[in-house]
Structure formats: C-alpha cells, structure tokens
C-alpha cells in the first residue's frame, strides 16, 4: 500500500532534482489503477482538503474532475504514485512493513 508522502509545495529543496526526474519519467495511469495502489483514507482526506465532495449529488467529486491526472513513476529509484491537481503533484510512497 502506498501512503501520502507530500506534495511539491512542501518538498525539501535537496530532493528537487529527484522530484523533477520523477515527473519527467512518469507514466500516465487511470484513476482506477491509481486507487488500487494508494491508501483510500489518505486520498479521502486530501480530496476533502481540496474541496471535493464524497458524492456527486452534492457537487464535484475528485473522480469527476477531468483536470486531475494520475501517474506512476520512481522517486530516487523507488516506485511511487502521484496525482496532479492545479499543477501540484501529491506523491504516495510504499508503506514501510
């Protein structure tokens, strides 16, 4: 399971080169594939902070937003998943056993 690790706004400056490489070498994936790998509680919390609702009857859900993109890549040699919302990347890393 992949857990939320941070976004590009609060990334440490020492990791910016690896972050840029992560973006440049990423593969686009579907939301469904992304959701198979990431922690759903983490995603629900982020979606709420971004202003999305849980059910489309009450407004825009993250799933409905065609401007959110989903990606698989590697950060510093480790597989990761991220989504991009308003040009901000939200990165998920493999949870430590």
Task: Briefly characterize the structure.
The protein has 97 residues and is an alpha+beta fold. The chain has helices at residues 16-24, 31-37, 40-49; strands spanning 2-7, 27-29, 69-75, 78-85, 88-94. The relative contact order is 0.27.
How is this structure best described in words?
The protein is an alpha+beta fold. The protein has one domain. It has three helices and five strands. A five-stranded antiparallel beta sheet has the order 1-5-4-3-2. The longest helix has 10 residues. The protein is globular and about 40 Å long.
State the main characteristics.
single chain, 97 residues, alpha+beta, 5-stranded antiparallel beta sheet, 3 helices, 5 strands, 32% strand, globular
Oligomer: single chain
Instruction: Give the topology string: H per helix, E per strand.
Output: EHEHHEEE
Helix content: 25-40%
Radius of gyration: 13 Å
Number of domains: 1
Number of strands: 5
Strand pairing plus helix content: what structural class?
alpha+beta
Q: How are the strands of the largest sheet arranged?
A: 1-5-4-3-2
Strand content bin: 25-35%
Number of helices: 3
What's the main sheet like? 5 strands, antiparallel
Unreliable residue stretches: none
Secondary structure layout:
Elements: E1 2-7, H1 16-24, E2 27-29, H2 31-37, H3 40-49, E3 69-75, E4 78-85, E5 88-94
Antiparallel strand pairs: 1-5, 2-3, 3-4, 4-5
